[in-house]
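lol forgot to send this yesterday, sorry. struct tokens for the thing we talked abt
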């Protein structure tokens, strides 16, 4: 079932989320609903706070993007990597590359808004998958960008916290409209007011 996406202005988006265990009730159903919600809204990632759950859980599917790209775009975004489809539970970034790159980002919780964000080109991450099996992996390019964006959600951080001061000032009016529910996305949203 597609869930309502939590909009900017909601307190849950600014919480540092809690770790969960394999005993967390309903995690499988939540993940299933998050996939449906993400695809329904046209996203490539979704974090639990975006469906009003303050837990360290997010999903990423860059494989869908990779499949539709031209070869020259794949080289820029993925280098030698493939797209991924993965569940991340209790994720922690262990290290970041010194190389950073800027690109436009958007967010389902901030519809019709995007901004340029600089992020490390690659990250090493420790996390549990949907079966609570532990992994330590390095991700780079577009995969790393999407993972970092979703990881930020579990830290109470939004991509707009990374944009330049002038860009954020230019976004202020639109941010107020989102917080007040004065937007009409093509997917269900839960507004703070």
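and heres what i got for the seq, position by position
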């Amino acid at each position: 079932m597609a869930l309502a996406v939590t909009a900017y202005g909601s307190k849950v988006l600014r919480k540092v989320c809690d770790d969960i265990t394999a005993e967390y009730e309903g995690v499988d159903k939540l993940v299933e609903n998050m996939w449906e919600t993400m695809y329904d809204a046209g996203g490539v990632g979704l974090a639990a706070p975006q469906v009003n759950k303050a837990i360290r859980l997010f999903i990423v599917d860059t494989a869908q993007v990779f499949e539709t790209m031209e070869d020259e775009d794949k080289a820029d975004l993925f280098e030698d990597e493939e797209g991924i489809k993965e569940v991340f539970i209790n994720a922690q970034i262990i290290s970041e590359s010194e190389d950073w790159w800027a690109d436009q980002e958007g967010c389902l919780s901030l519809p019709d808004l995007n901004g340029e964000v600089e992020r490390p080109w690659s990250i090493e991450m420790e996390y549990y998958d949907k079966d609570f099996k532990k992994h330590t992996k390095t991700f780079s390019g577009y995969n790393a960008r999407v993972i970092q964006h979703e990881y930020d959600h579990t830290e109470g951080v939004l991509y707009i916290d990374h944009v330049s001061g002038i860009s954020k000032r230019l976004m202020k009016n639109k941010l107020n409209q989102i917080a007040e529910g004065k937007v009409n996305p093509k997917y269900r949203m839960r507004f703070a007011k």
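The longest strand covers residues 85-96. anyway ping me if u want another try
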